[in-house]
Amino acid sequence: MTGDESDNTFGAEDLECIPTVRFFRRALIQDCDLVPWGSNYTFGVLLEDPEGEFDETLAIYKPGAGEIPLWDFPDDTLYLREYAAYLVSEALGWHFIPTTVIRDGPHGVGTVQEYIEPEKDTHYFTFRDEYREELKRMALFDLITNNADRKAGHCLRGLADGRIWGIDHGLTFNVQPKLRTVIWDFQEEPIDEALLADLRRIGADGELATRLLRYLNPLEVRAFALRLNRILATAVFPPLMSRRSIPWGF
After folding, report:
1. What's the whole-model pTM score?
2. Angle at which helices 132-145 and 78-92 pack, to 10 degrees?
3. Which of 94, 81, 78 is nearest to 202 (CA)?
4. Residue ranges of the domains in the chain?
5. 3-state SS track over 115-126
């Protein structure tokens, strides 16, 4: 189950009009099991629809209370950044982040995100030659959101749909340059005009900035706009300048 993509972007309407989003907000959490990996407390949950419209669905629940403090990101903000990243993906019409909501759960408020079952033994390095267009969008997304943690395993090919998905966007939107990613295939290549058009649209969309201000501080939203405008001005994927731009444990 994935979000309704009948519209290319969320436009002026609220995301709450999307049936899957409404379901993720109202669903009952019937099971909550700790996922035994990752730096922060993450739980696999089973969602049950009290209205009977949707089948039981697996999801990933990341409560703010389970975040380990970091020196370079404010405390209790990673789940907010995760949701802000989802908003940007939807605004662009790229839809590569699974349905994500902020809601209460057994361990307090956090994100609940649709679980995408990945094809076994697949990750960025196993399919990067086959899905260049999808990965160009993801690379560009990481540039504008200043993603500090795009590991190979954070790129999935869905078992059920064969689509390329991106997950784990809590380390995004920092004011300081933090880009760390494995996706450097396109460095110094011109950015496709269609992708630039998507960036221009959200850059001119005051509604997106207003939404982001609910989850990020004003300096972070301004830095996001500056990064976006810089990419529009150069229209080229930047080169890899340092090994620090590749995440540890890629």
Report:
1. 0.93
2. 130
3. 94
4. 15-245
5. CCCECCCCCHHH
